[in-house]
Amino acid sequence: MIGQLYITIISLTLAGNAYCQTSSSSPLTSSSLPTASTPPLVSVTSKLGENITLPCRLQSGGSDVFGAMKVTWTKVGQNGSENEEVLLSMGIHTSGKFKDRAYLVDTNAGDASLVLTNISMEDMGKYHCEVQDGMEDIVKHVILEVENGTTEGVVFPYAPHHGRYNMSFDDAVQACSSQGAVIASFEQLLQAWEDGLDWCNAGWLDDGTVHYPIKKPREPCGGAISSPGIRSYGRRNKQKSRFDVFCFASKLEGQFYWLTQPDRLTYDEAVQMCKDDNAEIAKVGHMYAAWKLEDYDRCDAGWLADGSVRYPISRPRKNCSPTEAAVRFVGFPDKKVKSYGVYCFKPY
């Protein structure tokens, strides 16, 4: 009995010495203590106007219980500003500038990735994804970089044949699309204003706001003593409000040209003449892109696809826009009258 007790004391003593030696040779420091895990950080890049997916997935694939996963996406505020709520999956609620632009990929498969549509410069920044699944909870951060509008293009104001201030937001989107363009962003309008665009009619932009650019202040356009700038009506009701629109046309992927032929044409004859030349009647966006990006210049008024008559002048001269380079608008004449020639467009 005494022998067993002696052996036990020796064993405890040796264990204690071993512990002391280990502790003294590798002392515990604050850096060796467990710390809360830092949320994974990834970065994605988008161009203006594109759609982008911000990744956020559960490793396990998610709970088998339908609707069990709660997802919250927020945009992290900078320089002391508050965070912005982007999307809350309980009811799929979106708000503010992200309304109708944000949705989830597939929460039932454990994928809480966020899709943002029609990216603008103000979307750039840090996003926070928080997922509560019951089985697995995660937090992730995603940095969204936005390339600052290197796409060549031109902003132009547009109103349909039935007159100014007649389009809802959806009408405006469709109007730009029908003219070979897309609805412009605020960043694109700002760049156009810096390049000299001056227009006194307010128009929709892609985020549902309404603006107009003024270079030369005057009484009907915000006051003669006001400063140059982009005048804002703010965010308007997309269904009830009526305005014009600012469209953005990209570099042409085809040939814009004046169809040389001896006769004046009705609108229907103009459409057919372009078809006979293996082309289509040009759209307003085609003319603006050719004028701005290719310096297209012709002092002949011609039919375009929307029934309007216009002509592009890049070199101002007498009887041809003598004061400035511009796309000149003649109007929406009677389509049955043989009054004008035609501009055509032939895709590559």
UniProtKB/TrEMBL annotation:
Whether Secreted counts among this entry's keywords is yes
Q: Which GO terms describe its biological process?
A: cell adhesion; central nervous system development; extracellular matrix organization involved in endocardium development; fin regeneration; glial cell differentiation; positive regulation of neuroblast proliferation; skeletal system development
The record's Pfam families line, in alphabetical order, gives: V-set, Xlink
Q: Which GO terms describe its molecular function?
A: hyaluronic acid binding
Q: Tell me the leader sequence span.
A: 1-20
Q: Where in the cell is it found?
A: Secreted, Extracellular space, Extracellular matrix
Checking SMART domains in the record gives:
IG (SM00409), IGc2 (SM00408), IGv (SM00406), LINK (SM00445)
Annotated SUPFAM superfamilies: C-type lectin-like (SSF56436), Immunoglobulin (SSF48726)
A GO cellular component term found in this entry reads: extracellular space
Flavoprotein as a keyword of this entry, yes or no, is no
Q: What is its main location?
A: secreted
Which keywords belong to this entry? Answer: Disulfide bond, Extracellular matrix, Hyaluronic acid, Immunoglobulin domain, Repeat, Secreted, Signal
| Ranges of residues in domain Ig-like | 34-145
Q: List the disulfide bonds.
A: 200-221, 299-320
InterPro entries in UniProt: C-type_lectin-like/link_sf, CTDL_fold, Hyaluronan_bind_Proteoglycan, Ig-like_dom, Ig-like_dom_sf, Ig-like_fold, Ig_sub, Ig_sub2
**Which residue intervals define the domain Link in the entry?**
154-249, 254-346
Q: Family membership, please give it.
A: Belongs to the HAPLN family.
What name appears for this protein in its UniProt entry? Hyaluronan and proteoglycan link protein 1a
Taxonomy of the source species: Eukaryota, Metazoa, Chordata, Craniata, Vertebrata
